Amino acid sequence: MPGAPTLEHFLCFALYSTSHAFNRVYKPLLDAIGLTYPQYLVMTVLWEQDGLLVGQIGEKLALESSTLTPLIKRLEAAGLLQRTRDTKDERQVRVTLTPRGRAIKAQAASIPACILEATGQAPEQLMRLKGDIDALRNQLEQAAQGGRSGSSRVITPREETEHG
Amino acid sequence: MPGAPTLEHFLCFALYSTSHAFNRVYKPLLDAIGLTYPQYLVMTVLWEQDGLLVGQIGEKLALESSTLTPLIKRLEAAGLLQRTRDTKDERQVRVTLTPRGRAIKAQAASIPACILEATGQAPEQLMRLKGDIDALRNQLEQAAQGGRSGSSRVITPREETEHG
DNA sequence: AACGATTTAGTCGTGTGCGATTTAATATCC
DNA sequence: GGATATTAAATCGCACACGACTAAATCGTT
């Protein structure tokens, strides 16, 4: 007999609680530069590629505009970036780093090493784990889109060119 | 050469976004029984062992009383459980399922199988993944706890170049 | 050119999550 | 036995996160 499913069996709970555990490790590091974790993610995206649209940031982070708009406004209020409506298409809002926004990239540079150390694991193991989790997320996104009882297949409107 | 850390490299982001992806798969299933995911977790804990204290639930879920108290009050308002102050120690609040709270356990019984199907992976692989994630969480909790008195503090940006 | 459909952000309401603080009850120390 | 410390929940303020909806701009078809 399989037995009643308890918390112990839930992979989702493992992800949920480990995500929170990560946040607790990040917090003191991010407090030092005045960012929350989601704000840090947005800044990381912009450090990689500046001048993205709100929607593009949302696509990268899998977050809705209803989440991002207030968050980005807070970053603007903190003087780290600027929001400007695109002159070509005024529906779109382009997000650009300020000098100060670029400057704190250096302050944040030490964070990944701190996090790596906190995991106490080898980078190879962590990357392997990340690969497995990414694969799982892709599966779940498929399922969430395709939704109902299995048989109906939804054609994705856009091909997802995804990394590992 | 390691290069600048981008979003692609972040295990934490993989966890963060996959946790949200799980939530999106759960949502339609939980909507049917009127629960949110954290509420479902609390109910799962109580289905396993009824009559726990708020603090004991918090320990199992790694959540603070400031999160749990309002959540549990909502479950009480929904008629799924009852909060009673312990007569021996009136600081403590014991949480007990109502008949209705026990009843929806049957309705929720089909959820794990739905989730398993949504992952599209073999249970053995998922359990292996869960094991790795649990180990990671334990490490992170160690780091978050021992962070103050431990050996590692925030590394200055200068010495970051060594770490990849 | 006209007008309905689509797209992009933004707003609003609800429900987490947590740190800091508070309140009340119990434990401990002298 | 009474002052003090500790503990368990609760409260408060802030920041996500999302669904439902809105507003405005653009697109598409005729």
Automatic annotation (TrEMBL), chains A, B:
It is found in: Cytoplasm. The keyword DNA-binding applies. SUPFAM superfamilies: Winged helix' DNA-binding domain. One of its GO terms (cellular component) is cytoplasm. InterPro entries: HTH_MarR-typ, MarR/SlyA-like, Transc_reg_Sar_Rot_HTH, WH-like_DNA-bd_sf, WH_DNA-bd_sf. GO terms for molecular function: DNA binding; DNA-binding transcription factor activity. Residues 8-145 form the HTH marR-type domain. Residues 142-164 are annotated as: Disordered. SMART domains: HTH_MARR (SM00347). This is MarR family transcriptional regulator. Keywords: Cytoplasm, DNA-binding, Transcription, Transcription regulation. Its main location: cytoplasm.
